[in-house]
């Protein structure tokens, strides 16, 4: 670690300088060699998005997705688009916003999203259902059976086991009516181990940390970061780790808490601690004990904080190799290989 720290000023996130330690240089070379992914863009220019009132990141993802899929729809004569996990319908609206006239169907398990989507769009047929391997066949027939139009199945950030399910479903549908599947996964760590062919066939599985890392941003993105961005990134990782360790030390199972329980805690340590006390309804008589335990944890790990950014660099160097392994593994699905 001392050698990495001493050479950090000579590392430009992927550019290997002549005086970089040999073992570190070999690490970056091998990490890059095992990747099948292309280099991401570092452009900071936002793409125009026809859907307003969405965050820049979401607007970028929608724009890139639609720009990539629309030509394929033309190629295959697609007239109908079914979006699995459509939320309130942003992606579907983007397909028709530039003058196209696709028949639009949105599948969403969250009833509140469906209600909101119906208020926003009259031209989208929303269906409130959770699609999975346990979905009854009659429900699948209702969604994929009635229309004779050529249909594209799309999913942007379909979570967890939805991805292997969509691939399996796509290979069962008649190709003349369903010629196109366009899906981008997220949350690899929420996929069950048995969803991976490498687990079923080789009894090998990636751990949760590796699956989470495979979803992270690419190392090249750090090239556009300023000093403040790096500090924010390091603090976010430090605070997340401290909070998780704190709850473990206090004997609190955060996996049973609502989603977002450990998010948006604050931008400094005092605020984070105050938010923790508030969210756990800690009485005044116990607050001092909680504060003492939290501060003791900070002191225990304080010397490690200076090295967090270096570990981030090493982790992100592994990201494309890990995601390449997951994507390559997905192609080994028996039905997909036969297809």
Automatic annotation (TrEMBL):
Positions of the Methyltransferase domain: 57-192
SUPFAM superfamilies cross-referenced by the UniProt entry: S-adenosyl-L-methionine-dependent methyltransferases (SSF53335)
Matches recorded under InterPro entries: Methyltranfer_dom, METTL25, SAM-dependent_MTases_sf
Highest taxon of source: Eukaryota
Protein name (record): Methyltransferase domain-containing protein
């Amino acid at each position: 670690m001392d050698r990495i720290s001493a050479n950090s000023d000579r590392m430009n996130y992927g550019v290997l300088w002549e005086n970089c330690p040999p073992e570190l240089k070999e690490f970056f070379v091998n990490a890059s060699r095992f990747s099948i992914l292309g280099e991401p863009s570092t452009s900071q220019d936002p793409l125009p998005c026809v859907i307003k009132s969405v965050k820049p990141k979401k607007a970028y993802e929608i724009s890139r997705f639609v720009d990539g899929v629309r030509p394929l729809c033309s190629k295959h004569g697609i007239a109908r688009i079914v979006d699995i996990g459509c939320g309130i319908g942003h992606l579907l609206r983007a397909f028709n916003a530039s003058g196209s006239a696709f028949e639009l169907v949105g599948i969403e398990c969250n009833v509140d999203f469906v209600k909101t989507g119906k208020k926003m769009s009259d031209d989208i047929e929303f269906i409130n259902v959770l699609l999975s391997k346990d979905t009854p066949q009659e429900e699948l027939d209702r969604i994929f059976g009635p229309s004779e139009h050529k249909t594209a199945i799309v999913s942007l950030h379909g979570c967890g086991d939805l991805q292997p399910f969509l691939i399996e479903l796509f290979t069962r549908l008649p190709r003349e009516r369903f010629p196109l599947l366009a899906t981008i996964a997220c949350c690899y760590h929420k996929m069950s181990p048995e969803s991976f062919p490498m687990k079923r066939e080789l009894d090998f599985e990636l751990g949760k940390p590796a699956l989470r890392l495979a979803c992270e941003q690419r190392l090249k993105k750090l090239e556009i970061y300023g000093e403040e961005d790096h500090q924010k990134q390091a603090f976010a990782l430090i605070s997340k780790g401290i909070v998780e360790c704190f709850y473990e030390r206090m004997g609190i199972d955060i996996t049973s808490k609502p989603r977002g329980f450990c998010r948006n805690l604050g931008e400094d340590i005092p605020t984070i601690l105050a938010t923790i006390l508030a969210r756990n309804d800690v009485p005044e008589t116990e607050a001092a004990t909680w504060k003492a335990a939290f501060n003791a944890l900070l002191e225990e790990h304080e010397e490690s904080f200076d090295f967090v950014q270096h570990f981030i660099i090493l982790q992100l160097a592994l990201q494309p190799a890990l995601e390449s392994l997951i994507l390559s593994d997905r192609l080994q699905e028996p039905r997909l290989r036969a297809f």
